[in-house]
Amino acid sequence: MNWDMIEGNWKQFQGHVKEKWGKLTDDDLGLIGGKRDQLSGQIQESYGITKDQAERQVKLFEEIHKDFQPKSRA
Questions:
Q1: CA-to-CA distance for 53 and 44, rounded, in angstroms?
Q2: How many domains does the chain have?
Q3: Is residue 72 included in any domain, yes or no?
Q4: For residues 40 and 54, is the Cβ–Cβ distance under 8 A?
Q5: pTM of the shown model
Q6: Has residue 74 been placed in a domain?
Q7: Domain limits at 12?
Q8: Is position 16 within any domain?
Q9: In this structure, what CATH number is given to the domain that contains residue 28?
Q10: Of 3, 17, 26, 52, which one has the greatest count of Cβ atoms within 10 A?
Q11: How many CA atoms within 13 Å lie on the side-chain side of 15?
Q12: For 13-63, what is each residue's pLDDT tens digit?
């Protein structure tokens, strides 16, 4: 998956992120702003895991959502 797609559609993606990482607050999501490295760092901090563990979780999240199609804004 192209992370640019997630970043560009971050508002739509926030619900998926909250489902996966419920400890992340709305403020966290706002600060992350779709940035992959920010997401990974916040997961690491919120869950007390290593950088490698957080990266693996984000990579798996990308794989699960690889077929994501943004909602059209008609």
A1: 8
A2: 1
A3: no
A4: yes
A5: 0.86
A6: no
A7: 3-64
A8: yes
A9: 1.10.1470.10
A10: 17
A11: 3
A12: 899 999 999 999 999 999 999 999 999 999 999 999 999 999 999 999 988
